[in-house]
Design brief:
By secondary structure, the chain is of the alpha+beta class. Among the domains are: 194 residues, P-loop containing nucleotide triphosphate hydrolases (Rossmann fold, 3-Layer(aba) Sandwich), CATH 3.40.50.300; 148 residues, no CATH class. Helix content is 54%, strand content 18%. The longest helix has 67 residues. It is elongated and about 155 Å long. It starts with a strand and ends with a helix.
Length: 568
């Protein structure tokens, strides 16, 4: 519900702050004093476009701010969280219209867009009268109102479970078919690449290994000559190092007999002899294994060339080549299994579509039952509100489609479906004898629309989740007994919603829980619109004015009291 509405420098308003109460808030005042200005300002809080013309002369900007109690409005809380606005029990919306032709919007003191305000407005306020923001004049809301009235949540939940399961299956099928198409287009290429790679059959690190072997083969003569010379120097020449070390060892043995300090060198020279002996044996063995094989050398060179070319073609390294080959293998296997996989998924889709279609039909049948009850109730209420010859109908449409991905299939026919089912629902009405039923959205008369809205809201009151409803010009074209009925209907509606209604009729004003009067005064040579919350005594006087005009008589006072007390 709205707690306060502050308007500053807006058309005829200098600055006012209105403190609304729960229940039925009635606004009255003479024609032309600016009652509808308040509703227009409220419209700006829910994203309506604004003109600089609304800025009070001499001011730089107009400001409208609304404070709402949203402590039990989960839709608003979800919206604030999803859009990174501060969350609390209060919602503060502020709109500033700047003289330079721009406007600024804020939600809980954070900058917001008009789209944010429009989306948020759907959860907090419903304006009826001469404004566009009327939920019942948006065809897309009709199906939800019908479902809420019929308490069809369980049927809708059941249907949506199958709908979303089917949606995932369709998405998977489309993905598989796209992959299949791409893979089949590449199949010949992949088979060629696989054949090319398999012909060479590269092994991990093979290029490095072949380079090492090539380096050895290409330098075999140098290796042979060098190892031969090393072996000869160590072991076979006249002055071989091994022989010289033996002689040194013998001399050290003789010296150690004279001076024991030489004994410490005996182990070192023995180790040196052993090392030289092992080196000589390794060199001799290596020398004996050296190959002089021009055919093997050429074979390695050809193999290296093939591997380098393959690596260059498929990613720059043998690891990339091997990885690509494994990918090809998987893709080729997938192509072979696609037909089976797709067939299996198509069978699952048909099974799930049958469940989805059955649930959609059950939901549709129940909706039609609920529609009959709504139609009868609304016609009855409209009669009480002075529309005696009204006819009301809920029109259902089911659109066929040729799309095989349709969610609903009945027999051999496919139907368009959404998460709400395969029904399109629209309210139709006729208010005059002999007049054919027409879409509610095309009903022209503002006052008639307001009463139709009131009737709809009365029957749907318990199901409509919007906390605040505003009725402007609810009393156009009615008087007397009918006005009494309208007032009573508003009063009943206020048990479920906070109501703000602008009226000229005492029969409606008498039902108010809170009464405001709008007036226009001249201050410093300028017209100013003001608003005042009335006490009980002031309310009686204001209702009396509505009865008798400016001259309030004792009789009109008594009539006002009787009207108010009978209303409450």
């Amino acid at each position: 519900m709205i707690k306060t509405l502050t308007i500053k420098d807006y058309i005829l308003i200098d600055k006012i702050t209105i403190h609304f109460d729960s229940g039925l808030n009635i606004i009255t005042g003479e024609t032309g004093v600016g009652k509808s200005i308040i509703v227009d300002a409220m419209n700006l809080l829910i994203g309506e476009k604004a003109s600089t013309d609304v800025i009070r002369t001499g001011s730089e900007k107009a400001i409208i701010e609304g404070v709402f109690d949203v402590s039990d409005n989960q839709n608003v809380i979800n919206f604030l969280g999803d859009n990174d606005f501060d969350i609390g029990d209060e919602l503060i919306i502020r709109r500033e219209i700047l003289k330079k032709g721009t406007s600024r919007s804020f939600i809980n003191d954070s900058p917001a867009t008009l789209s944010h305000l429009k989306e948020l407005g759907k959860f907090i306020i419903d304006l009826h009268g001469q404004h566009e923001h009327q939920s019942l004049l948006r065809t897309e809301t009709h199906i939800h109102l019908l479902d809420n009235f019929g308490n069809l949540e369980k049927l809708i939940e059941e249907y949506r479970q199958h709908y979303y399961n089917l949606k995932k299956a369709f998405e998977k099928l489309e993905y598989l078919k796209n992959i299949e198409k791409t893979s089949r287009e590449k199949k010949d290429l992949y088979e060629f690449q696989a054949k090319e790679i398999d012909a060479i059959n590269p092994k991990p690190n093979e290029i490095e290994e072949i380079k090492t072997k090539l380096n050895i083969l290409e330098n075999s003569e140098r290796l042979y000559e060098s190892t031969s010379r090393i072996y000869e120097t160590l072991y076979e020449s006249e002055f071989a190092i091994y022989d010289q070390l033996i002689k040194v060892r013998n001399l050290i043995d003789e010296l150690a007999k004279i001076d024991k300090t030489f004994s410490e060198l005996k182990n070192d020279i023995s180790s040196a002899i052993t090392v030289v002996d092992e080196i000589a044996k390794f060199i001799q063995s290596y020398n004996s294994r050296i190959e002089f094989n021009p055919e093997l050398l050429e074979e390695y060179r050809e193999r290296l060339g093939s591997l380098v070319l393959l690596a260059k073609k498929y990613g720059g390294s043998l690891d990339a080549v091997i990885e690509h080959r494994n990918k090809i293998e998987e893709e080729l296997k997938l192509v072979e299994n696609f037909e089976e996989e797709i067939h299996k998924l198509e069978e699952e889709i048909e099974f799930e579509r049958k469940l989805c279609s059955d649930a959609a039909v059950r939901l549709s049948e129940k909706r039609r039952e609920v529609a009959e009850k709504i139609s009868k109730s609304i016609v009855s209420i409209l009669k009480e509100l002075g529309i005696n010859n009204a006819k009301f109908d809920v029109v259902f449409r089911n659109k066929k489609t040729e799309n095989p991905y349709a969610f609903v299939k009945l027999g051999s026919e496919y139907f368009v479906a959404t998460p709400d089912g395969f029904d399109e629902v629209e309210f139709y009405i006729s208010t005059n004898p002999g007049e054919e039923l027409k879409p509610l959205t095309k009903v022209a008369s503002g006052g008639e629309i307001s009463r139709i809205m009131l009737a709809l809201k009365t029957i749907l009151a318990k199901s409509d989740k919007l906390p605040l409803m505003v009725f402007d010009e609810i009393d156009v074209g009615i008087s007397g007994r009918i006005a009494q009925k309208v007032g009573k209907a508003l009063k009943n509606l206020s048990e479920f919603h906070q109501i703000i209604a602008i009226t000229h009729l005492p029969q409606i004003a008498g039902f108010s829980d809170t009464h405001f009067v709008v007036d226009k005064k001249v201050k410093d040579g300028r017209a100013i619109t003001t608003i005042k919350k009335l006490s009980e005594e002031e309310k009686i006087y204001e209702v009396a004015k509505l009865i008798s005009g400016e001259e309030v008589t004792p009789a009109s006072i008594e009539s006002a009291k009787e009207l108010i007390y009978n209303s409450n």
